[in-house]
Amino acid sequence: MNWKEKCTTSTLSMKSSMIRELVEMTQNVPGIISFAGGFPSPVTFPKEQLAELYKEVLLQKGDNVLQYGSTGGDLPVKEAIIKEDQLSISPDELQVCCGATNGIYNAIKTFIDPGDLIIAEAPSFLGSLVAFEAVGAKIIPVSMEHDGMNIEELNQVIADNDNRKVKFIYTIPDFQNPTGITMSSEKRERLVEIAIRNNIIIIEDDPYGKLRFKGKSYPSVLEIARNKFNNKSVVLCVRSFSKLLGPGMRTAYAIADKGIIAYMNSWAQKVNVTNDRISQNVVAAYLEKGLMAGQIDMIKKTYKPLCDRMVAAIKKYIPANIKWVEPEGGMFLWLELPEQMNTDELFKKAVEQKVAFIPGSKFYPTGCEQYNGMRLNFSYPTGVQIEAGIKRLAEVL
User: Fold this and answer.
1) What is the CA radius of gyration of the chain?
2) What does the DSSP 8-state code read for residue 329?
3) pLDDT tens, 126-151?
4) 3-45+294-396: what CATH class?
């Protein structure tokens, strides 16, 4: 794929609303089986524990947490996160933010001038692509392989744009959204080497890394940069509690060099003033009570059989000429159809057969679309729905 010939613009503002419309459209069809949403399973939400903790935090700390607080997050919250993740960092290297996309936006708003370049995996998470567009960045896509970003293509893209400033390389190395692909350890190290050599910051988006239910774990890109290359400034890692406790809590955190975090806090103050201090402190209490390990284990035990059910159904029903990579965690699986097939058009036919997905074109910068992919979510539907839905989808195909 020659991205330079294919891409004409990076205007993405309509795509996020298009996905919402697609999801809403499927919700109004009686009997439809939807693989379209990017939702965690509600059965994994620790509702009773959180209800008790919200009450406890408000009764014990209400005079404090109902007031304005630090833009970058309360110190006890940061300390609880650092202990939970076993991070060798100081609190001023961490920002608590209102969801992972908010943290990413704080970072790119700090560094990006209109027209600056951000290299992103293609396909990639639409929410981040929209944030990049919102600050005036130009998005340069790099294709995905079975083990992550195409590193040779990445080198070529950087070389081709040596007269323009590439500020960030954006990657989701674990169970990528939308493909479900995990980046190999070798590629993670090469990515860090390339970023250091070219003075580019890596944004490591890590919402799913703790949801591995099979296969071998790899060190995060952040860990590789700090431990193997002794470099604190090349990677900015963003993690979230959305897939662990519930996306409605809007609590996430960014880890970076303290100078970068200071600039991010300065920008966040202009937008948020203070994040939701109640939810922050509920998360901290949850971590301090040692509840997270059991919660993560429960989520993995919930998602693994759902993923296995989808994989088995794909092997059973989906035509053999359709490519896909079996996820080892996370929430998504990606089907790559023959190039002549258009999943935007297929979506309408699928809904008629009462099954839904997100067409792959929605995960590319505008002007750079490929139309032969589709994202399937396995965390939200039941096992019975997965079996029936994949069978319906195969009939449409």
Assistant:
1) 21
2) B
3) 999 999 999 999 999 999 999 999 99
4) alpha beta
